[in-house]
């Protein structure tokens, strides 16, 4: 008991020192390393929250999967072990079905189209889906466009994918996407992808240029095909348990800072995509740009048939398409 007390006092002092004596410290997890747009946006939010609360509320960002892989971080946030998590919609697909339609391949025409949809009523409806799983949406971030990359050969058309093995995020949507393309899906955590490509367990993976760059995957898979099959949202979510501990005033403050961090993130994103493309090209990677997306879009029909099953979901797809 005495030992426990000493331990608690010691950790309280340490926490106080580390965070500059904040009354409330929100711990936020991200799979990406420092310098990545999502990490920097949450740090920016932390600085805002601290300033706006007169130093009372702080955010501590744990980058580079320091507290576990994305799926674990999401669970920890649901249970209130972690206060916040920034993650792709992918690992939420099986948990929060409302995230599935906006994660379908080629559902958005461009990142700008995605922003318009997510910033409007559809984004609010999806937030209710997260709320049902004890997660409070603080903002929708950006994942740009995801494309295939591999260690074997330049891919220019669907037929080139035949029989190849690609890592996908742990979501049934993407397993079905790969099947529709005639390739094999291996769902696995992000942190295992590099060594799995290196050892030939998989031929490649799919991601946006900043992730392809910062994960180092370009070192082991040099062919990047700009097919842009997935333009999908990411989310900054807070644990409902942590949210409920805040006063109504502090909730409003945190929510506003989260909202304000969205344009900051999106601006950092555009710059990072350019920087990453330049970096991987300089390191010998090949970006295959001249892709006819038509056949890729057409091949997704069975995936849509599987996930857009009710008149409500069909209506959702129509509303997304109609958003200008
Ligand atoms: C990145 C995304 C991460 C993570 C990763 C992955 O683009 O920002 O949150 O989901 O992809 O593929 O696991």
CATH class of the largest domain: Alpha Beta
Which overall shape is indicated by the principal axes computed on the Cα atoms?
globular
Give the oligomeric state.
single chain
What is the number of helices?
A: 14
Q: Mean of residue pLDDT? A: 94
Largest sheet: 7 strands, mixed
SSE topology string: HEHEHEHHEEHEHEHHEHHEHHH
Radius of gyration: 20 Å
| CATH architectural grouping of the largest domain | 3-Layer(aba) Sandwich
Tell me the name of the CATH homologous superfamily of the largest domain.
Answer: Bacterial extracellular solute-binding protein, family 7
| Bound molecule types | beta-D-galactopyranuronic acid
CATH-derived topology of the largest domain:
D-Maltodextrin-Binding Protein, domain 2
Catalogue the unreliable spans.
1-19
- Please tally the β strands and state the result: 9
Assess the beta-strand content as a share of residues: 15-25%
Give the total of domains: 2
Derived structural class: alpha/beta
Approximate helicity band: 40-55%
Walkthrough of the structure:
There is one protein chain. The chain has 324 residues and is an alpha/beta fold. It has 2 domains: 22-143 and 233-265, Bacterial extracellular solute-binding protein, family 7 (D-Maltodextrin-Binding Protein, domain 2, 3-Layer(aba) Sandwich), CATH 3.40.190; 147-230 and 277-322, D-Maltodextrin-Binding Protein, domain 2, CATH 3.40.190.170. The chain has 14 helices and 9 strands. The protein has helices at 2-19, 37-52, 70-78, 111-118, 121-131, 172-180, 193-198, 209-214, 217-220, 240-245, 248-282, 293-299, 301-307, 311-322, and strands spanning 24-29, 57-62, 84-88, 135-150, 165-168, 184-187, 204-207, 223-239, 286-288. The strands form 2 sheets. Strands 1, 2, 3, 4, 7, 8 and 9 form a 7-stranded mixed β-sheet that branches. Strands 5-6 form a two-stranded parallel ribbon. Strand 1 (24-29), helix 2 (37-52) and strand 2 (57-62) form a beta-alpha-beta unit. Helix 2 packs antiparallel against helix 11 (248-282) and helix 6 (172-180) packs antiparallel against helix 13. The N and C termini lie far apart (62 Å). The structure holds beta-D-galactopyranuronic acid. Beta-D-galactopyranuronic acid binds at residues 31, 70, 87-88, 90, 143, 169, 190, 207-208, 211, 234.
């Amino acid at each position: 008991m005495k030992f426990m007390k000493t331990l608690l006092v010691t950790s309280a002092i340490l926490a106080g020192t580390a965070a500059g004596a904040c009354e409330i410290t929100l711990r936020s997890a991200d799979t990406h390393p420092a310098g990545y747009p999502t990490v920097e946006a949450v740090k920016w939010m932390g600085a805002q929250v601290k300033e706006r609360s007169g130093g009372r509320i702080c955010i501590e960002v744990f980058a580079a999967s320091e507290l576990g892989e994305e799926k674990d971080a999401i669970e920890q946030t649901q249970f209130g072990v972690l206060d916040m998590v920034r993650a792709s919609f992918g690992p939420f697909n099986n948990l929060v079905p409302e995230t599935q339609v906006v994660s379908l391949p080629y559902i958005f025409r461009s990142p700008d189209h995605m922003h318009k949809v997510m910033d409007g009523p559809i984004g609010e409806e999806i937030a209710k889906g997260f709320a049902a799983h004890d997660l409070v949406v603080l903002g929708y971030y950006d994942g740009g466009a995801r494309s295939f990359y591999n260690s074997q050969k330049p891919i220019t058309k669907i037929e080139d994918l035949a029989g190849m093995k690609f890592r996908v995020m742990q979501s049934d949507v993407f397993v079905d996407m790969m099947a529709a393309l005639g390739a094999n899906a291996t769902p696995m955590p992000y942190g295992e992808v590099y060594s799995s490509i290196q050892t030939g367990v998989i031929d490649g993976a799919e991601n946006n240029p900043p992730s392809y760059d910062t994960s180092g995957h370009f070192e082991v898979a040099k062919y990047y095909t700009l097919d842009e099959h997935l333009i999908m949202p990411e989310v900054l979510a807070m644990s409902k348990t942590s949210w409920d501990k805040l006063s109504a005033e502090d909730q409003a403050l945190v929510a506003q800072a989260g909202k304000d961090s969205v344009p900051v993130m999106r601006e950092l994103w555009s710059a990072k995509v350019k920087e990453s493309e330049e970096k991987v090209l300089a390191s010998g990677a090949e970006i295959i740009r001249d892709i006819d997306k038509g056949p890729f879009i057409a091949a997704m029909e069975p995936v849509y048939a599987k996930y857009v099953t009710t008149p409500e979901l069909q209506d959702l797809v129509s509303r997304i398409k109609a958003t200008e």
